[in-house]
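Protein entry
_____________
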Amino acid sequence: MTTRQILLSVELLVLVVCLGLALSVIFSKVSRLRREARTAIALAPVRGALIELAAGEPEGFPVLRDARGETADAIDEAAVGLLAKVRGEPATQLVSVLKDHGALDRAKADATHRSTVRRAHAVQLLGLARVEDSTALISEALEDDAAEVRASAAYAASYLADPWLAAPLLRSVGVGEGIPAGLAADALLEMGVEIAPVLRAAMRNPAPRTRMVAAHVAGAGTFVQALPELRELIGSDPDVTVRVQAAQALGSIGQDSEVDLLTRHTQSDQPTDLRRACAQALGRVGSPLAHDTLVDLLADPDPRLAELAGESLAQTGARGVAALEERRDQPAAGLALVVAGLRAGGR
């Protein structure tokens, strides 16, 4: 076979593969559209009752509960979408419809199905429906091999708000990709003060993302019990991002006792991002104890650090504002006064 024939064969093979992919996409889209059309047709007779139920008018509940076959399947699919949008009695009644149709029992079975898609859908439904005895299944799903299943389980955990899920959730967020840090943090914040010991332990986890999320939640939830671990993180964690998050958490907790530690980490021998975070955290604490440090930082060679110091100084009270007025000719001080004025005008 000549070189020309080989090239022609390769081009033909590529063309066939591209044609196959195009046909696969078209087939998939057509199948989806046909499935959606069938669902719409099956749902049409009860759509009004479903909308009314979601709006808090339960007159159509018996019709929805007693539906069977394709109509029941269509109702279940629509109800799952509505559960993320409604609360209170309408949500309770939607869950009752799903239970009567057997959807919740099927979800429990599918939570361990070999299909990744079915596992992900199942754990998401169990969370949306707040199925109390599904905690163990969601805990297992948080450590699933598939990233999309772990993400669905984290989403479910935010609805269940069961403190027992805090430990597996924090372990999972540190394993590869799959669970966005923000989603994990939101779920943890729903679990209440009982997770304080778990957060403290997580700040010693080998995974930086786990330590970072734990530090963020400790600050956002004002977990004073976690102050010893946060102090340790800001001073010695090998990951600068974790140290920055610890600084922000200390600022959010806002105790005067942390001013000295935050001040030490604004010094020039510290990483730039950490210095900036500590300057900002000092403003959140709002303590006059930070006054001298913040005044010195107004002249720092890092312009962004100087700006943050000015904004923080304005938050420490009248003495801080007076110091800014005295240094109005400095760019950072002048900008801080403008920002403070805009904020005051917007109140």
Observations:
- The chain is about 70% helix and 0% strand.
